[in-house]
């Protein structure tokens, strides 16, 4: 479904990604792990069109998407749920969710999609009139995920969805991601919660200093010394 080939991405003159290649098949969860500053967010931004790669290609459903504007990439079916939620804090929960549906095909079906989002996160229905800035961290993450789903994506790019949440909520967020996959969603998941991500993902890759250091099936990666030492504290 998604094919990333030999991507180099820069911020001005500073290179952040070196020759990154990775593929995601339809229906898979692929986890992308790595320490702070490894380039995980940079890679997601390169996929969603916020950054343009200096070289390399990104293909989605057989079409080149590197160089397309972010809104065109959303239209094609990729939703980027950013690090740090990035909600419209002075808007209500309902308005935040609606903002996610400003895509041609999704706009017409926004009421039906909203019902689906409320089914996944019932608390968002109760809180629809509440200002986003007054929500708890966990509720804010639910709004960010719900807003991302409002564009009716086929591929979700989640950037650290469990960041800063209490353990019970972390488990809940991972459960939701698994449920989405079971309903046909494809997921590229950036997480620092390495063990839990490798447990729900099919494959994973480790990014180090802007380069892919390891990639493979999760079961095999859990046995790798690098993963055990650096990410699982074993
Ligand atoms: N807007 C920017 N301008 C310049 N350099 C940047 C910018 N954003 C990120 N970088 C640099 O690019 C590198 C990769 O950053 P990135 O945010 O992709 O890391 P990350 O793996 O997502 O880290 P974290 O786990 O802390 O979120 C870092 O060295 C960072 O300082
Ligand atoms: Mg990041």
Describe the structure in your own words.
The chain folds into two domains: 1-77 and 157-234, P-loop containing nucleotide triphosphate hydrolases (Rossmann fold, 3-Layer(aba) Sandwich), CATH 3.40.50.300; 87-153, no CATH class. The strands form two sheets. Strands 6-7-8-3-9-10 form a six-stranded mixed beta sheet, with helices on both faces. The relative contact order is 0.18. It is 39% helix and 26% strand. Strand 9 (203-208) and strand 10 form a beta hairpin. The protein is α/β, with parallel strands linked by helices. The structure holds adenosine-5'-triphosphate and magnesium ion. Adenosine-5'-triphosphate binds at residues 11, 14, 16, 34, 36-42, 83.
Taken from the alpha-carbon principal axes, the silhouette is globular
Mean pLDDT: 94
Q: Name the CATH homologous superfamily of the largest domain.
A: P-loop containing nucleotide triphosphate hydrolases
Note the total helix count: 11
DSSP E strands, number: 10
Helical proportion, percent range: 25-40%
Low-confidence stretches: none
Question: What strand line-up does the widest sheet have?
Answer: 6-7-8-3-9-10
Distance N to C terminus: 34 Å
Largest sheet: 6 strands, mixed
What is the CATH T-level topology of the largest domain?
Rossmann fold
- Classified by CATH, the class of the largest domain is Alpha Beta
What is the count of structural domains?
2
Q: Under the CATH scheme, which architecture of the largest domain would be assigned?
A: 3-Layer(aba) Sandwich
Query: What is bound: which ligands?
Result: adenosine-5'-triphosphate, magnesium ion
Order of helices and strands: EEEHEEHEHHHHHEHEHEEHH
Judged by helices, strands and strand pairing, the structural class is: alpha/beta
Radius of gyration, in Å, reads 17 Å
